Amino acid sequence: MRREHDVHFRSGVLRGVVSLLLAVLVVNLFIMTVARHAEYKGQALENRQARFHVRAPRGRILDRHGTPVADNMFVADVTVAARSLGEDGPDSTLVRLMTWFDLPRQETLDRLAQQKERGRRRLVLVPNASLAQVTAVEERVRQLPGVRVDTQARRRYLHGSLVAHITGYVGEVGRAELDTAAGYRIGDDIGKLGVEAAFEDVLRGRAGLKLEEVNASGRIVGRRAVWMREPRAGSDVRLTISLPLQVALRELLGDRSACAVALSVPGGEVLAACSLPAYDPNLLTGGISTDAWQQLANDPAKPFFNRIVQATYPPGSLYKPVTSLAALYHGLVGTETYLEPCTGGLLFGDRTFHCWRRTGHGEVNHLIAMAHSCDTYYYQLGLMLDIDQLAVAARAFGLGSGNAGIFTAEAAGNVPDRAWYDERFGRGRWTRGVLLNNAIGQGELLATPLQMVMLAARLAVSGRVPDPVFVADPAPVREAPPVLPFAEEHLAWVRGSLEAVVEWGTGKAAQVPDVVVAGKTGTSQNPHGEDHACFMCYAPADRPEVALAIILENAGHGGAEAAPLAGVWLAEYFARRGELGLGVVP
Amino acid sequence: MIHMLLPAGDRRIFLAWFLLCLASLALLWSVTEPIRGPYEQIDPGVAKGLFWKQAMWMLLSYVVLLGTSRASLRFLENVAIPFFLVSILLLVLILAIGPKIGGARRWLALGPMRLQPSELAKVAFVLVTSGLLGRAMEGGRSLAAMSLSFVLMAAPMLLVLREPDLGTSLVFLAMWGGMVFWYGLPGILILGAGSAALSAVIMFYSESVVQQALPWGVYIVLLVGVLAVARLAILAKVSLLAANVATGIGIPFFWDKLQPYQQERILTFFDPGRDAFGSGYQAIQSRVAIGSGGLFGTHYLQGTQKGLAFLPERHTDFIFSVAGEELGFFGAVALLGLFAVIIGRGIEHATVARRPFARFLAIGVVSYFTFHVFVNVAITTGLLPVTGLPLPLLSYGGSNLLSSSILLGLLLNVSSRSFDD
Predict the structure, then answer these.
(1) Do the Cβ atoms of B316 and B390 come closer than 8 Å?
(2) How many C-beta atoms surround the C-beta of residue B3 within 10 A?
(3) Most exposed of B124, B129, B326, B338 (fewest Cβ within 10 Å)?
(4) Are A43 and B276 a contacting pair at CB < 8 A?
């Protein structure tokens, strides 16, 4: 009996508790929906929060001394909503704006249509608007539905085309990239080439998220903005390039098609690197018109072509130290050996291979051959060597493989060996004649300007230069420098002969007062036109701290054309090295 | 023929289940309607696919409801212990290897389905505790059975708390509380637990709002005074005082253990304006939605707040605010009425059922629905701090719909026997 009483007592308590809880809910609901209805209704109509993405400022790109090369500036764009440009043409607001700003009608509509196609919800009508244009819009904003002035950070390259091939440029993120790269929104910038692309993750930062009150038509009211997540600025990237040295190199090269790279030794840091002609990356940041793009892309001088790592040239006589080292290594010749005298060429089979000096060099030993770049001597060395022996020597210096790492489409160059010729011409269908060409750096041998300067640098310090870098910060991961197989006495003899080149040989034009320069001239045979002039060097010869390679396209002989420019730049380097804090070995 | 398609037992409970499912589909359809106008670019909205997914879950839940309503109760009692052990194992398993989604490990991926083991654990816990307390009831009450039931509750609760999922872990406490109350608690325990909870709240108020311990000190002095004149055994008096002092001192330590976002939510609850866009955002937006609905609502599919991304979690934990906005006071109260039918009938069947196992089963289900409905609606209307807890049968989410339907199936099962045996 007591148990039944208990059960009824308990269910009574439970009913009471549940009723009380439900009553609390209902009364509260009633208060909210009736007593405070007007207050909530008002808030629902007026106080609506919208989330806005706020782009993070992109990290800057600095030169090695901390001087900005690329930064950001705030620009105002006059933008219209995407729906202003309907299927059947622009709406009246857009027409009115185009008339006001005196914009060419068809061109503008094409430009906007392209943006719309990319999925943008706001179309940039006037990029980088002037104060007058901004004021004109702001004053009449109520009569211009969907029109807004958007301020945003835009990439600015402070020196135009000066460092373009190294920095690369940013552009609007494309459809394909939106699918593959995480966290990008339509209209965001993304690095397209060079350092901008390779260091995208460092430079980019993280977008912020802001809550703004908006009114019923979606316009920001401007009260009580709250950050849900602060944007985090991207980090700066510091190049190894020294702007003053870069400017000096750029001025020397003038308006030629050319390429030049200077490197610290033994650090392997690129101090200056020019590829000409170059493009102005500023043209590409604000969205370039299709016409202008086509014009740049189809320019026969190929301004987008990054000659530093993409162009390959036969190294010509710059290669002779490699041939010498291979021959010395295999004991085929000594440092003092005289071979058959040079009479202006060598007969091989039924063909005469000419020396560059048709009148001949006469009696020539190894040192004289290097200093005066006697081809006949090197033809004879080539005939003593096996093609694979020569290829192994070249690869020891890093020729034949890409080494910069941060550029897309970097060329590997070419160091042909037996397998390569068998593949190319068929087994037994090529002769030792190819060795004559290889021995003087012509024929199928190819190297990029960056590989050429690396050759000079590694000759200078017996190989103790790791692969080159363009960026100092974030600190790159360096691999150990290669170990050269050659005897130190042979390397020392080559260095002495390179000093002779500049002291009394073909490279005299590269002499610098008070500094001993070692170098090698070269002429890169060009089947399509005038030969390319080449020169590589390092200095000071006794304690090398800088290496330089110059290629002037279609300019003829390296000794006459390229060597003088190297002399001028080296003089500038040694005049300013103290002030720039360079070449200080701890 | 039609009888085959209806579950056994109380038709009113089944009707409530059916109407709530219909309401859920209607609300989800509204929530998943595409957003138009200037807000399109701010919020892409909730995908329509979720509606169809939930409809599929509903079909499955219906079949399971039919099954559980007709199953043999003795069979269910027999499988309760292995079922419970398996669900505990799953809870351990997801803590170890479960995927981290939104900062928590709550889900188990089974091909395309995601299952929350904590939902299954609720059902298992009700079954196993009903078995334990029912058997103990038949042999005369014992404190040992109650202590054991506490252990049964603590295990899944702590595991779920680790996921972390505060709301769901408290459900275990609520279900246990309801069933133990039905079992019969000594008055001194109720007194002890109640006064200790009061001590904790006062200490919290003292520390965080007034920032001095004075109010709590006053409370303890008053308590000592009351105890001095009360007619209680000395041991009881000392225990009561000790429990109060211990919880009061313990609360700051417990506070430090909470996650920062949980602390923030509790502080925001006491002072909603404190962070209108951070953790107070959901609470404020939900209240604005319901309040702006008025008596009759903004009418179905016409709500502005839910469509404008101002209603967070609008298809899951905050679906009641969509109901409030679109259906108004009357619609919201009608939904509460349907839950009241389930809870009221549940208490009735618990009272009249013959077997103790069936009674506890009914009470477990009643506690589950009472806690879920009250806490969820209290959160959406700003009466309680925000913590994640779905509204049974209405919120989007397959696992909760399934476990709610199983529990209702059990209640129907109990009701079918209370009439005829």
Answers:
(1) yes
(2) 7
(3) B338
(4) no
Contacts of A34 in chain B (CB under 8 A): 294-295, 329
User: How far off is chain B from A11, nearest CA to CA, in Å?
Assistant: 6
- Residues of chain A in contact with residue B38, where contact means CB-CB under 8 angstroms, are 217-218
Q: At what angle do helices B398-420 and B319-352 cross, to 10 degrees?
A: 30
Its pTM stands at: 0.57
Alpha-carbon separation of residue A98 from A103, A106, A120, A136 (angstroms)? 5, 10, 20, 13
DSSP element (H, E) containing B131:
helix B117-138
Nearest CA in chain A to B181: A10
Kindly state whether A113 is in contact with chain B, defined as any CB-CB distance less than 8 angstroms.
Answer: no
Please report the residues numbered 50 through 69 in chain A whose beta carbons come closer than 8 angstroms to any beta carbon of chain B: 50-52
- A51/chain B closest Cα distance in angstroms: 6
Q: By three-state DSSP, how is residue A533 classified? A: strand
Chain B residues touching residue A211 (CB < 8 angstroms)? 277, 281
Q: What ipTM was assigned to the predicted interfaces of this complex? A: 0.85
The structure tokens 């009466």 sit at: B383
Tokens representing A326 are 């291979």
Task: Name the closest residue on chain A to residue B326, using Cα atoms.
Answer: A33
Q: Which residues contact B356 (CB under 8 A, 6 or more apart)?
A: B133, B134, B135, B137, B138
Asked if B370 and A21 come within 8 Å (Cβ–Cβ), the reply is yes
- Write out chain B residues lying below 8 Å of A121, CB-based: 41
Domains identified in chain A and CATH numbers: 51-76+157-239 (3.90.1310.10), 243-580 (3.40.710.10)
Distance CA B219, CA B238 (A): 16
3-class DSSP state of A379:
helix
Q: How far apart are alpha carbons A36 and B294 in whole angstroms?
A: 9
Query: What residues in B contact A45, CB-CB < 8 Å?
Result: 292
Query: B39, A218: Cβ pair inside 8 Å?
Result: yes
Nearest CA in chain B to A43: B288
Comparing CA positions, the residue from B227, B217, B224 lying closest to residue B248 is B217
Contact assignment for B324 to A29 by CB distance below 8 Å? yes
Tens of pLDDT along chain A (586 residues)? 345 567 888 888 889 989 999 999 999 999 888 888 888 877 776 555 666 777 888 999 999 999 999 998 888 888 888 777 877 778 778 888 888 888 888 888 888 888 887 777 778 888 878 888 888 888 777 677 778 888 777 889 999 999 999 999 998 887 777 777 677 877 788 898 899 999 999 999 888 877 776 654 455 655 556 677 788 889 999 999 999 999 999 999 998 899 999 999 889 999 999 999 999 998 887 666 667 778 888 888 888 899 999 999 999 999 999 999 999 999 999 998 999 999 999 998 888 899 998 999 999 999 999 999 999 999 999 999 999 999 999 999 999 988 777 888 889 999 999 999 999 998 888 888 899 999 999 989 999 999 999 999 999 999 999 999 999 989 988 888 989 999 999 999 999 999 999 999 999 999 999 999 999 999 998 888 889 999 999 999 999 999 999 999 998 887 788 999 999 999 999 999 988 988 765 4
B84-88 long-range Cβ contacts below 8 angstroms, 24+ apart = B84/B121, B84/B124, B84/B125, B84/B127, B84/B128, B84/B152, B86/B124, B87/B117, B87/B120, B87/B121, B87/B123, B87/B124, B87/B125, B87/B156, B88/B121, B88/B155, B88/B156, B88/B159
Instruction: Indicate yes or no: CB of A25 within 8 angstroms of CB of B378.
Output: yes
